[in-house]
Design brief:
Blueprint: E1 6-11, H1 15-26, E2 31-37, H2 41-51, E3 54-56, H3 59-64, E4 70-73, H4 80-89, E5 93-97, H5 104-117, E6 121-124, H6 131-141, E7 148-156, H7 160-163, H8 179-182, H9 184-195, E8 198-206, E9 218-225, E10 230-236, E11 244-251, E12 254-259, E13 266-269, E14 278-279, H10 295-313, H11 321-340, E15 344-345
Parallel strand pairs: 1-2, 1-4, 2-3, 4-5, 5-6, 7-10
Antiparallel strand pairs: 7-11, 8-9, 8-15, 9-10, 11-12, 12-13, 13-14
Helix pairs in contact: 1-10, 4-5, 5-11, 9-11
């Protein structure tokens, strides 16, 4: 697709919007950041002052701006479906922050609508763009540890401040909140990308910290992949350690450990006497996650850059957005198991058409 210079409008001017905007500014030869949109007038004013873009308080006005070719949606989860459909109805290109929507059905509808509309669509799942996980994916594809037989993820954060805010979208299921929804989607995407589809799962969850809201702050989801490998995913939003991630893969010929709190971040182990392991040297990001240069910041910059470059170059993005849609099917199954206390099987056709 031949594109000269793209006009971008960002809808939702919260914290992550600054990183998206910084990415667009780095690509000023092909992108104009022309507008932002938020119902919060203070946020809109700050955005305009920092990035020199005009602002709107209404999404419809942003979409209808003829200077806007691409809409970057970074809204609370419960607003994703209607907003994304409005963008697609207008024929605008769409970058949509994860999770795609609060339900799998809505996520599939957005995905199919984007395909039918012929616009350039991508789910902004920054897990795909973390250098550590890219290195792991390469090692798995190369067979560095043989057949993967067990995978384990753990995501830790401290969201007590957000979870204590009345009306914050994170605190209500109806607004797309919930730890498994907000955080679990990352791990379920990662499993799909690295190892394929999930066969069945069991979920458990509880509230550890006494905050007056309806959502869980600690959860575990475990089960079996269709490959036969076992998996477990742990989540907490009330930890007293820095926001960080961990991934363990165990195979028939070795293991891989990713730990954001360690240096080096990624190590490859071969055999029971390999106590030292081998540092994977092509991972440039260390444990300082939330500062410029850290792997979360860099991965968001990279995902936005890939979206723009793939649009300009007329190619597909590196991420398969269908995998991010599939993650919502696993989120729903996890909550079904948590609420019923039963193991849930994933339909064989859950990823069909994605």
């Amino acid at each position: 697709m031949a594109v000269s210079k793209l006009g971008v409008g960002i809808a939702g001017l919260g914290l992550i919007s600054k990183t998206h905007a910084a990415a667009y500014q780095r690509m000023s030869d092909v992108v104009d950041l022309v507008a932002g949109c938020d119902v919060d007038a203070t946020a809109a004013t700050k955005f305009a002052d920092e990035f020199g873009a005009k602002t709107y308080s209404n999404l419809e006005d942003l979409i209808n701006d003829p200077a806007v070719d691409v809409v970057d949606l970074i809204l609370p989860h419960h607003l994703h479906y209607e907003a994304a459909m409005a963008v697609l109805d207008a024929g605008k290109h769409l970058l949509l922050e994860k999770p795609v929507a609060p339900t799998f059905e809505q996520s599939v509808a957005i995905y199919k609508k984007a395909a039918e509309s012929g616009v350039h669509f991508m789910v902004a799942e920054n897990t795909r763009y973390m250098a550590a996980y890219q290195a792991v994916h390469r090692l798995v594809q190369e067979g560095a540890i043989g057949e993967v037989v067990h995978a384990r993820t753990y995501l830790r954060s401290n969201e007590k401040a957000h979870l204590s805010m009345k009306g914050n979208w994170r605190t209500e299921f109806a607004m797309g909140g919930g730890l498994v929804m907000d955080t679990g989607a990352h791990s379920f995407y990662l499993l799909k990308w690295l190892l394929g589809e999930i066969d069945e799962l069991t979920g458990i969850a509880k509230k550890v910290f006494p905050i007056d809201n309806e959502i869980e702050d600690t959860a575990e989801v475990y089960g079996r992949m269709k490959s036969g490998a076992h998996f477990s995913c742990g989540f907490t939003s009330v930890s007293e350690v820095p926001h960080s991630e961990r991934l363990e893969l165990y195979g028939t010929d070795g293991g891989i450990l990713v730990d954001q709190m360690s240096e080096p971040v990624v190590k490859l182990f071969r055999g029971q006497y390999d106590f030292a392991g081998e540092a994977v040297g092509d991972v440039p990001f260390g444990p300082d996650a939330w500062h410029p240069g850290g792997w979360h910041y860099e991965s968001v910059l990279t995902e936005v850059t890939d979206y723009v470059q793939s649009l300009v170059e007329g190619r597909a993005p590196l991420i398969s957005s269908g995998d991010a849609v599939y993650a919502l099917r696993i989120v729903e199954a996890a909550y079904e198991s948590i609420r019923s206390g039963k193991t849930v099987s994933i339909p064989a056709d859950a990823a069909a058409g994605l």
